[in-house]
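4.2 Preliminary Data

To establish feasibility before requesting continued support, the project team ran the inverse folding procedure on a target of 138 residues. The structure was first converted into the token representation described in Section 3, and no sequence information of any kind was made available to the design step. The complete token record follows.
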């Protein structure tokens, strides 16, 4: 299984970087009926690789995006995650107005590689624009 993460602004992380994807739809646990208070969250984890030949490394851009304040329109971006297996797109999640809830980088001197954790949510008033597709050739 492989994962691809694309974020507007030139962030493009592939199967060598992204290791896990967790998609969730959150509703209040104390509700006795279906509610309009729904949240859509994507959690992506992966490796922080060394710089590429062109001097870039995509997780740097994730860290910079996470620090954009709410007053700037650029804090909301289109996020697409593809889950592929055996040449098929199992799922493709698109959050067109996502913002960073949490971003972490962890480093360990035993393995010599860093890891990242990115948590994004879809803007609440744009939940209906979230797209979930799949079942087609990669």
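Position-by-position output of the design step:
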């Amino acid at each position: 299984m492989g994962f691809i993460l694309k974020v507007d602004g030139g962030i493009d992380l592939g199967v060598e970087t992204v290791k896990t994807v967790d998609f969730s739809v959150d509703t209040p646990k104390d509700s006795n009926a279906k509610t309009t208070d729904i949240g859509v969250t994507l959690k992506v984890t992966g490796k922080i690789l060394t710089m590429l030949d062109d001097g870039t490394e995509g997780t740097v851009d994730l860290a910079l995006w996470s620090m954009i304040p709410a007053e700037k329109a650029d804090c909301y971006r289109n996020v697409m995650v593809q889950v592929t297996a055996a040449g098929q797109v199992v799922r493709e999640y698109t959050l067109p107005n996502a913002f960073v809830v949490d971003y972490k980088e962890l480093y360990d001197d035993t393995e010599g590689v860093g890891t990242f954790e990115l948590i994004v949510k879809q803007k609440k008033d744009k939940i209906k624009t979230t797209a979930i597709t799949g079942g087609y050739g990669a």
